[in-house]
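At your convenience, could you comment on the folded chain following this short note?
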Amino acid sequence: ETGMNTSLPLTDMFNASAVFISLLFVLIFTFLGRLEYKARILMITGFSLITMAFFYDILITHRYHTAALWIFPFVMVSYLLLYPLLYHYILNFLNDRKTLILDRQKFLFPLLTGIVLLVFYVPASYSEKLIYIQSPYLFDFENYWSVSLFYLLIYCFYYFQAFWFFYLFLKIYQVNREHYSATFSRYVPRWLFAALSASLL
């Protein structure tokens, strides 16, 4: 009991710090002109999603389950959206075209996650939805087959996409290194590239 009481403030501090840092990045990409460029909306969206995910953790920690039920679908999709958003920001930053580059294929897994949510989570009853948010590691196909299948699919989508974008991220990094040495080419500043690398990892 004592261990639980001492761990909660640490969790709150971590989540609150993460929300603050994410909002700080939102403000940076919103108001810092040098980083605006044509794709700044991608980063604003990405860090807004991060903020929402940590806010969701705060709701779960303090057992505000009714509120958590409403934002759960958006949080699930946000986990899969973050990689494509950061990837497209770097891709557009490196490109000199005036139009925004968006590769729809890179948003395949967020789309699949939305479909899985519509099939499994949305039609579920209130009590079943509580199981979804309270048991993210539940793999009991005999008693809770829908929840178990849901999370199995979500985890497969997430980790497959993570490895995929890690590979794409390395390719962009190699291109960025070549552009960094050429004064006539547009490149991602090293500090910004390091920050995005940390976010992806």
Summary: Residues 179 and 185 are 5 Å apart (CA to CA). The radius of gyration is 19 Å. Confidence is low (pLDDT under 50) at residues 1-7. The longest helix spans residues 145-180.
